[in-house]
Amino acid sequence: MANFSFDIESDYDKAEMNNVFDQTQRELDSRYDFKGTPAAIEWLDDKKGLKITGNGEWQIDAILDIVRKKLATRGQSQKTLDTSKDIVESNLKTTKEVPFKQGLDQDKAKQITKLIRDEYPKVKTQIQGDAVRVMSSSKDDLQSVMQLIRAQDLDFPTSFTNYR
Fold first, then answer.
1. Which of 17, 62, 91, 149 has its CA 20 to 30 A from that of 73?
2. CA-to-CA dists, residue 64 to 4, 25, 30, 90, angstroms
3. For the chain, which residues make up each domain, given as ranges?
């Protein structure tokens, strides 16, 4: 009997994030309400997040809205953005660091495996580092698991890889 499997990961598409960054930068350069202000967007160390600079908290929120819209148009999850860091104000500038969420820690992986076990007892799950391997002898069960995970309101992005 053939066994089928796939991995559930929490990752983002780096090329799409580059596109989102470039589009946001272009919109900031062309918008009238950002002319003459310190409004800017930069990469955090090694493109692991964004550093947003603005006049005040309202401008930071406006730039974050632009980033969210660009993510949506490119088909990326907004859950990738970790907006939990505080806003820093100094020298008439306001900055906020927004790192990207990446990787499943043990708690998130256990949450996913418990959810799958409760709904589909025949499907086997295995935590492998920062991914969860899902195995079954039925492709239909695996597709149902994917629908289940997509339907959940998890606080982190999920993606499916390594289909076998």
1. 149
2. 40, 12, 16, 19
3. 4-11+103-161, 14-99
* Span 4-11+103-161 CATH architecture: 2-Layer Sandwich (3.30)
Burial of 51 (0-12, 13-18, 19+ CB in 10 A): middle
Instruction: Report the interhelical angle of 139-151 vs 106-119 (nearest 10°).
Output: 120
Q: What are phi and psi of 101, to 5 degrees?
A: -80, 135
Sheet with 4-9: strands ordered across: 124-128, 131-136, 4-9, 159-161
The predicted-structure confidence for 91-101, as pLDDT tens digits, reads as follows 888 999 999 88
For the stretch 104-146, pLDDT in tens is: 888 888 888 888 888 888 888 888 888 888 888 888 888 888 8
pTM for this prediction? 0.79
Q: Residue 97 in 3-state DSSP?
A: strand
Could you say which architecture CATH assigns to the domain 14-99?
2-Layer Sandwich (3.30)
* Spatial distance between the Cα atoms of 109 and 105, rounded to a whole number of angstroms: 6
Could you identify the residue written with the tokens 């039925």?
138
